[in-house]
Amino acid sequence: MQxxxxxxxxxxxxxxxxxxxxxxxxxxxxxxxEGQTAYAAQQGTWKKSSGKWWYAYNGGGxxxxxxxxxxxxxxxxxxAGWMKTGWQQVGGKWYHLSGSGAMQTGWxxxxxTWYYLNQSGAMATGWQKVGGSWYYLAKSGAMKTGWQKVGGSWYYLxxxxxxxxxxxxxxxxVDGSGVMATNCWIGKYYVDANGKWDRSKSGxxxxxxxxxxxxxxxxxxxxxxxxxxLKRSTGIHSGTVAQSGKSRVCSNCG
Length: 254
What we know:
single chain, alpha+beta, left handed beta-beta-3-solenoid, two-stranded antiparallel sheet, 20 strands, disordered N terminus, N-acetylmuramoyl-L-alanine amidase family protein, Cell_wall/Cho-bd_repeat
């Protein structure tokens, strides 16, 4: 069945090439690039002229005016056939092409800012679940960290960008959905309308009772044993802040 399908696809591609020439096959790649199911570009050779790259087909002509899949990777060419690099807007969506011209996917650090490019290569915005964690990306695509107000609710995004949940962030608590709790009891601690722990109602020092984690040679304590900073650590201790002897909380989990 698969062999028959491949033969049919090859036959269609050949028919298009014979009937309409090189440009038609390139157009097919451009139309379906986002779905990653287009025909691969014709066999050819990379060439460099005046410091810029272009792709010449063995049968004549060259890739131009859109996407072409070459050796399993996607490349973007302008109307003159020059290979594009860096950030490019195509069809209202942003893509990032590496220095080699190949379209990138997954996490990308550009300067000091992180971006996420989905499987189609398009830059993601808003809430995105990646590797089991939630991240929030601004309209510019920039990954956000720290306290962020989204849709009327406050969330805390760790230094890694991952959303915190079911944990205290200083004097504030975020629930299982990541939303900062307000006007409610969290165990024996009460948080007010601004989400801050109200000591007058709780009457207990949170730092004296909350379990934290640390290692002997570390300079900070951690709010969770799963903190990325502790992944390679051994001899992890647990107890109160006072027992840890540390005065600062880890920036990744606190």
